[in-house]
Design brief:
Layout lengths: L1 H12 L13 H14 L14
Helix pairs in contact: 1-2
Length: 54
């Protein structure tokens, strides 16, 4: 399921889902987050401090 969602995310938003940013989430939380992004048609927004590029 997760692999399919990651593929759908990359196809929809033309970028990979930022797994390194959310590495502390468990798989169920990641799945819910990706599903929410896909349902709302909005990629995950990560507010990084100035000068930090993840």
């Amino acid at each position: 399921m997760l692999e399919g969602l990651l593929y759908a995310y990359s196809e929809r938003f033309h970028e990979n889902f930022p797994m390194m940013i959310i590495k502390d989430m468990d798989e169920d939380e990641i799945i819910r987050t990706i599903q929410s992004c896909l349902q709302e048609n909005k990629p995950l927004y990560v507010d990084c401090p100035d000068g930090v590029d993840y």
